Amino acid sequence: MTRPKSVSTLKVIIAIILINVFDCVDCILNNQDTLDITNDRNFNCHWTGGSDPKLTCDCLTDKEEFVIKHNSIPVYDVAMIKITNCGKITIGANAFAEMRSLRSITLENIKSIVLEADSISWLGSVRNRENLIDWDPSVPSIRVYLISSNIDLIANNAIHGRINLLEIINCDIQHMSSFAVSRLQQMLNIRITGSTFHQLETQSFKRFTTENLLITNTAFATIPSRAFYELTVRDQFLLDNITVYDTLKPSGFTITNPYNFQMLNSHINAIAGSGFKVATRGPVVIQNNRFHNTANSAFRSISLNKEDPNEYETIKFERNIFDQLSKDALVVDKDSFRPVFVNLQLTEKCECGNLERYFRHDENTLELSCMSERDSDEWVSVDHFQSTRCGMLDTKSGTAYIIAGVCAIVVVIVGSIVGFYFIRLHRSKSYDKNSTDKNGKVSMIVPDGRTYRETELCVIVERADLLTTDL
Hints:
18-stranded mixed sheet; elongated
């Protein structure tokens, strides 16, 4: 019996529909990995050819979220990628890892950026992936620019590999995880300027070498211990016009080997002891800063990494303002540095009781001034004020010493009187006991006559009258 032709045709149609359905499901499931962002109209990407092929994406809308993952940009010979004016961009793992011709990545004017783990990770060709710390111009490396954007997250190990330049310019960073920037190779410069870090975790910048570390016009909510940890800087470590709203905690900056270290024009609310753990190869300049609360040994861990043990460098404190200054706040490593203090100001009234709380009298005070008692705009040398206005009775310690001395003298005098009294009392009791009998008569010891036969005892009672003389 022959089947109707319409039945066979229906089966073919159903089979074609099922194949298309399966293909669509597979496409949906793998869409995130296979999506070519260069074909997305909202990304508005343009290719520029030539010796340095460039991909520029200028988003047409800031309301969409774009996800860039591995193979999202399928062309491997692109040299520069620039993405601007987007709403939210999430960069996934190894998004640029296979682009061997890549030399530059720029993210600019993005409302929200999320950098996931391994998002900006680049090592170049497979044959050149050995670990290279020292700069070698023959080995390819990339430049990374994050400009005028809000960065919600920089995750663990987000930025690593062969990166010779990292610039963070006018960015607002909400959260930076531990090891966010780490294991960098071929690094020449890290420049952070005009940016704000709301939350840094411990070891956010971890264990890499760079020629220069330059942080300027940048604010931190707080700098935790070991935020910049085990970094080797070969040339310049610069902090210029930075603000720390809360606290720079112990070892917040752990930096080794810069040729010089400068901290200029900055405002730090509080510096804990050993806030800077910096071993330099040259001079240190701390100038034009304001410190609200400076703890003991705040600068004590700045040391000199010197080959010649007899060599000294200068650590210079110039035109700094202190609101609260602990006694040992300005103690420095004199085995390494020759300290220089120039025009330091303490925003406290010149009062003897206040001054002795903050520091002891030594070479640090020679260039330290306090506010005049009469006029807060007038500054008076602390050394001169102490020598001319502060006597022994004007200080709390001086008053305490005098009171202690008087008390000691009184105790000695009272003790002497009491001791003398008891000695006399003891002696008088002993004499009375031996010299009188029960009837109160005077006893006399008479030698035994049998022993001293020739002894004669004579008791002569004499009466002495007044002498009269006739003149």
